[in-house]
Design goal:
The structure is a single chain. By secondary structure, the chain is α/β, with parallel strands linked by helices. The protein has two domains: 44 residues, no CATH class; 184 residues, Glycogen Phosphorylase B (Rossmann fold, 3-Layer(aba) Sandwich). Helix content is 43%, strand content 10%. The protein has a five-stranded parallel beta sheet, with helices on both faces. Helix 6 crosses helix 9. The longest helix is centred in the C-terminal third of the chain and has 14 residues. The radius of gyration is 18 Å and the shape is globular. The N and C termini lie close together (11 Å).
């Protein structure tokens, strides 16, 4: 069993395992923990985040493959058209100092906040406080649990076409997948989403999609069926 077709393709192409022996079962999300139980304003108030800005949120380890440097450059590219955009970055990692320096050099001091470690209990609140969660991965994103967590909290997700993330979003809202992993592709989608040129799924639609298709009861039944067949 694998979490995504992307993993299955690697097993098939690199290790010559026939598709008939590969079962693709996605990961699930705890819909009782990740839920849309706060208004955006309430969530922002709890975190002391701005009430009057377009907020992007990304919870990522600060390492190269996560693409935070690319995202910062994309924010710099759109800030003149969207001066109220604000990016909250949760996470720790070896690149924090260099990323903070990059943000300063790009003139993003008023547009980016590095939150550091975000306690587990605040993660669902942060998702609900954001207009969009962004996952700018550059490689090795096997499934993309962040995508499900955010959707379960009612917040749409913009992701790059890496690993299993497109498999989650394509049946729901393919417009939320960038054309490429580079700065221009991410900036183009962000600008479209934040200006309304690209429609954003509603809070209820995001929540319903995650809760219906990726709740653990459903995923457990799929695993059970595979075990019973083996």
């Amino acid at each position: 069993m694998v979490l995504s077709k992307a993993f299955g393709t690697i097993l098939h192409q690199e290790y010559h395992i026939p598709w008939s022996k590969i079962n693709v079962i996605p990961g699930g999300v705890d819909t009782s923990r990740f839920q849309a139980n706060l208004s955006r304003q309430e969530a922002r108030s709890q975190l002391n985040w701005p009430q009057d800005r377009k907020i992007l949120f990304t919870p990522r380890r600060l390492v190269n493959r996560m693409g935070i440097d690319i995202l910062l450059s994309a924010i710099a590219k759109i800030k003149s058209k969207l001066p109220d955009v604000w990016l909250a970055i949760a996470g720790k990692g070896v690149l924090r100092d260099s990323l903070e320096k990059q943000a300063t050099e790009l003139g993003l001091s008023n547009h980016v906040q590095f939150l550091g470690f975000l306690p587990d209990e605040q993660l669902p609140i942060a998702y609900q406080a954001a207009d969009i969660t962004v996952v700018p991965s550059q490689s090795l994103e096997g499934f993309g649990l962040i995508v499900l967590e955010s959707l379960a909290c009612g917040t749409p997700v913009l992701c790059t076409p890496i690993g299993g993330m497109p498999e989650i979003l394509a049946p729901f809202s393919p417009e939320l997948i960038t054309e490429d992993t580079d700065v221009d592709a991410i900036a183009l989608k962000l600008e479209g989403l934040l200006t309304g040129k690209i429609s954003i799924p509603s809070r209820n639609a995001c929540r319903d999609y995650a809760a219906t298709n990726f709740n653990w009861t459903k995923i457990a039944q799929e695993v059970r069926q595979v075990i019973l067949k083996s």
